[in-house]
Design goal:
CATH topology of the domain at 2-15 and 25-34 and 43-94 and 107-122 and 151-182 and 205-216 and 230-238: Rossmann fold
Distance between the termini: 22 Å
Strand content: 15-25%
CATH superfamily of the domain at 2-15 and 25-34 and 43-94 and 107-122 and 151-182 and 205-216 and 230-238: Alpha/Beta hydrolase fold, catalytic domain
Number of helices: 8
Radius of gyration: 17 Å
Structural class: alpha/beta
CATH class of the domain at 2-15 and 25-34 and 43-94 and 107-122 and 151-182 and 205-216 and 230-238: Alpha Beta
Order of helices and strands: EEEHEEHEHEHHHEHEH
CATH architecture of the domain at 2-15 and 25-34 and 43-94 and 107-122 and 151-182 and 205-216 and 230-238: 3-Layer(aba) Sandwich
Helix content: 25-40%
Largest sheet: 9 strands, mixed
């Protein structure tokens, strides 16, 4: 395990590398505004990969001197991490909003991507019905969550949510997604309280894409279906050797 702080515009990003070889991978936690919580996912694959995890600027162990930042800045920070670790290309694995961020990164930096994995993503939508279903199930059913080490940075959360909502209104966004030429895997949980249709739509746009639903799993899939998630991830990673 190696910890490294990387200097970026208006801040310093905490990163951690695990594993000794194999496919380089970056894990992107959700939020936005959350620090890294994907150590359990790293443990499923870091014997066959070099895994990078990080806290976004202003979150957890990463410093920030500013008043929030936009999506493009966040994506450039991720690309800066790749350059610092001297990976020519890497696989992107994101969870929840981190999966959506990974999709945007694939569009902006396609030359840096080996493959893309979305775990419990939310899709390119700001749909009222989707939100109503999510909010109702959240109140009625709730969901199992991990213990987060740090609180969400609300300033970072709001600035990135606003930027994301502007990004998904781009007229050519769906066309650009459909033209992505990279191996893609969309993993969803059968019992996620978030509707799956938005992720199914994105998956169907990409020609080299597969959608898998893990039975009995919730949004944080590894909390209840760790072995099943590990099997799916490892099988996909091995196709990139």
């Amino acid at each position: 395990m190696v910890e490294k702080y990387i200097t970026v515009e208006n801040g310093r990003i905490w990163t951690e590398k695990r594993g000794q070889g194999g496919v380089p991978i970056i894990l992107i936690s959700g939020g936005p505004g959350s620090s890294n919580y994907l150590e359990p996912v790293s443990s499923l694959i870091d014997d066959i990969c070099e895994v990078i995890m990080f806290d976004p600027k202003g979150c957890g162990r990463s410093g920030y001197d500013g008043n929030g930042y936009d999506l493009e800045t966040c994506l450039k920070d991720i690309e800066r991490i790749r350059e610092e670790y001297e990976f020519k290309k890497w696989m992107v694995i994101g969870h929840s909003w981190g999966a959506d961020l990974g999709l945007a990164y694939s569009l902006l930096f396609p030359q840096s991507i080996l493959g893309y994995v979305s775990i419990s993503g939310t899709g390119v939508q700001n749909d009222r019905d989707w939100k109503d279903i999510y909010n109702r199930k959240k109140e009625e059913i709730g969901e199992l969550k991990p213990d987060f080490e740090f609180e969400v940075n609300k300033m970072v959360h709001r600035s990135l949510i606003n930027s994301w909502r502007a990004f998904i209104k781009k007229p050519l966004l769906l066309k650009d997604i459909s033209q992505l030429q990279l191996p893609s895997l969309f993993i969803y949980a059968e019992n996620d309280i978030r509707p799956s249709w938005s992720i199914r739509q994105v998956s169907s746009l990409i020609s080299n894409s597969r959608y898998i639903e893990i039975k009995g799993a919730e949004h944080y899939i590894w909390l209840g279906r760790k072995n099943e998630l590990g099997e799916v991830l490892r099988a996909f990673i091995k196709t990139l050797y």
